Amino acid sequence: MDELRRNHYLKMMGLTVWQRRGQLLPAEQQRPVDRVPESHASVNQRVADQQRLAEKEVLSTEDTTMPRHDWQSLQQQVRQCQACTLRAGCIQTVFGVGNPQADLLVIGEAPGADEDKQGEPFVGRAGQLLNAMLLAMGFKREAVFVANIIKCRPPDNRDPKPEEASCCEPYLLQQIEFIQPKLILAVGRIAAQNLLKSDIAVGKLRGRIHLFGARKIPLVVTYHPAYLLRSPEQKRKAWQDLQLALSVLGNKS
Q1: CA–CA dist 68, 34 (Å, integer)
Q2: Which tens digits make up the pLDDT trace of 158-197?
Q3: What is the pTM of this model?
Q4: Which strands, in side-by-side order, build the sheet including 97-98?
Q5: Which CB contacts under 8 angstroms, 24+ apart, belong to 17-25?
Q6: Is the pLDDT of residue 20 over 70?
Q7: Could you tell me which of 6, 86, 146, 223 has the fewest CB atoms within 10 Å of its CB?
């Protein structure tokens, strides 16, 4: 990713981009990056369409590590799950979206009201900020996989209970096993503490690389976009977390 575009996405995150005096870009590179005049709903639809196409192309290959029927079977198991009481109180399950062979797996906490309606994690203002964070890293949303600790919306958007997270954990572990990401980005307290089996605060978990599971997948913790919207002064720390994540991925941007 060129520096001009990265700076644009950092500004979308709400971060001030500083330049040393005398290092201004040439005039022809100083024009603003045009935003695509596309509504959030149409973006969601486009991403969903691209996901379906990507799954058809990726999961139909002979040498794939994710048999198509297994991935679809897991989706069906999630839709039919009655392991806890949450399914009875939500519109639909939120399995996750994106590239099922992504290098980067983003895991949040639980669906909210908008996610429950659309069947997709991280929509609304928090989703827009997450998209900007990913773009600042050099990833389009559809290039990564985005999921949650639990697949059903808790009532009144409350935090998921430990027993609810425990019921959903086998599905998440199967997703991780299928995807085999090079890095997990744990977004927010609920996700970080459940994945790391810890009660340590996010502020103390971030800033270093953890290892997840038997495969010892690198895991980086950062703040939840909803928290960053309430506490924009923490966005610079979040950008530091994303840079740490990029160092693990080999700065593919």
Answers
A1: 38
A2: 999 999 999 999 999 999 999 999 999 999 999 999 999 9
A3: 0.77
A4: 97-98, 145-148, 104-108, 183-187, 217-222, 210-212
A5: none
A6: no
A7: 6
DSSP string, 149-208: SSSSPPGGGPPPPHHHHHHHHHHHHHHHHHH--SEEEEESHHHHHHHHT----HHHHTTS
Tell me which residue of 71, 158, 53, 47 sits closest to 113, measured CA to CA. 158
Lowest mean pLDDT among 21-25, 27-31, 52-56, 128-132: 27-31
CB contact at 8 A, 101 and 58:
yes
Q: What's the pLDDT band for 11 if we cut at 50, 70, 90? A: low
Question: Which residue stretches of the chain are H helix?
Answer: 3-13, 40-59, 68-80, 113-118, 124-137, 162-179, 189-196, 202-205, 225-230, 235-249
| Site of tokens 């969903």 | 48
What pLDDT shows up at residue 202? 96
Spatial CA neighbour of 171 closest among 152, 188, 143: 152
